[in-house]
TrEMBL record:
Keyword tags: Glycosidase, Hydrolase, Signal
Superkingdom per UniProt: Bacteria
The keyword Signal belongs to this UniProt entry's keyword annotation: yes
Gene source species: Niabella pedocola
PANTHER family per record: N-ACETYLGLUCOSAMINE-1-PHOSPHODIESTER ALPHA-N-ACETYLGLUCOSAMINIDASE
UniProt protein name: Phosphodiester glycosidase family protein
Domain Phosphodiester glycosidase: 100-286
N-terminal signal peptide: 1-25
GO function terms (MF aspect): hydrolase activity, acting on glycosyl bonds
Coiled-coil ranges from the UniProt annotation: none
Higher taxonomy: Bacteria, Pseudomonadati, Bacteroidota, Chitinophagia, Chitinophagales
Stored InterPro entries: NAGPA
Keyword Signal part of the UniProt annotation: yes
């Protein structure tokens, strides 16, 4: 009886110790992210860019390059927009320059061979594409939530299991995407798929508690940037005070462009650590007049 009691105490102590160490690691990552010195740049009235190269495996025990823009979300003269093509694929920089954007990121998932989005897209009241589903009529995770824009102001919404659910959103522009990371300050549980758990370049959009919009890209697939799992991306968006956040298409598509600097991150399609490896995409989210 005594031996069994001590064994149980030993197991409890070990579990407590592991939990404590895990909590310490998470606290270390959050402090590292929030307290680190970020390179800051003004892109225009109400728009700021932040970039940071994390070296020596100092974030999530890995090297990372993170870039994000903080944008006032007021509507008015300067506002959020979606630019999209039905079939033609173009780099984010081309979309952005054509639209006179101040800052832009890649949009939702698309057919890399035939062009066009596989998710719902509506721009200024014009339907560009619907949620494409197979014979089973089951939506993918990137079709179950969206960013929507009404009078130039962006917000994050969740949907249901019907392919045409975005039609019910009271907004002139809608870009289905996902999976949803956080909504109304409640984190969503990420699934155990390789897409979620493995590290990849990521793009995410969030709305902070004060109503500002975060456009974020994390690089990956390189010694300088391991990329993020969706759980790690979720944590970062929370550390940036986002009450709602959503994952966008990532991998080789992940691109953050600004009028002032061009491509800010290091897109991976050319397999080089430079700013030239953009992938042509079906649509972008951008901010401008």
């Amino acid at each position: 009886m005594v031996t069994g009691c001590w064994a149980r105490k030993g197991i409890l102590f070990l579990l407590f110790g592991m939990s404590f160490l895990l909590g310490m690691a998470q606290d270390t990552d959050s402090l590292q992210f929030v307290k680190t010195v970020w390179k800051k740049e003004r892109l225009g009235a109400g728009v700021r860019l932040y970039t940071r190269q994390f070296t020596n495996k100092e974030l999530f025990a890995s090297n990372q390059f993170i870039a994000y823009a903080v944008v006032k979300n007021r509507g008015g003269r300067k506002r959020f927009h979606i630019a999209a093509e039905k079939k033609l694929l173009k780099p984010v920089s081309v979309f952005a320059k054509e639209e006179g954007a101040i800052v832009a990121v890649n949009g939702n998932f698309f057919n890399t061979k035939d062009g066009g989005s596989v998710d719902y897209v509506k721009t200024d009241g014009r339907l560009v594409s619907k949620n494409l589903v197979g014979a089973h009529e089951k939506l993918s995770a990137h079709q179950q939530s969206a960013v929507a824009i009404q009078k130039g102001k962006l917000f994050v919404v969740t949907g249901n299991d019907k392919p045409d659910w975005p039609e019910d959103i009271a907004a002139t522009s809608v870009l289905a995407n996902g999976p949803l990371l956080t909504l109304d300050a409640v984190d969503r549980v990420m699934d155990r798929s390789a897409f979620s758990q493995n590290r990849h370049p990521r793009t995410a959009v969030g709305v902070t508690k004060k109503g500002k919009v975060i456009l974020l890209v994390a690089d990956g697939r390189h010694a300088n940037a391991a990329g993020l799992s969706l759980n790690e991306l979720q944590k970062i968006m929370r550390w940036l005070n986002c009450s709602s956040a959503i994952n966008f298409d990532g991998g080789g598509s992940s691109t953050l462009w600004t009028r002032k600097r061009g491509v800010v991150n290091h897109p991976t399609d050319n397999k080089k650590w430079d700013h030239e490896g953009e992938r042509a995409v079906a649509n972008v989210l951008y901010y401008s007049k």
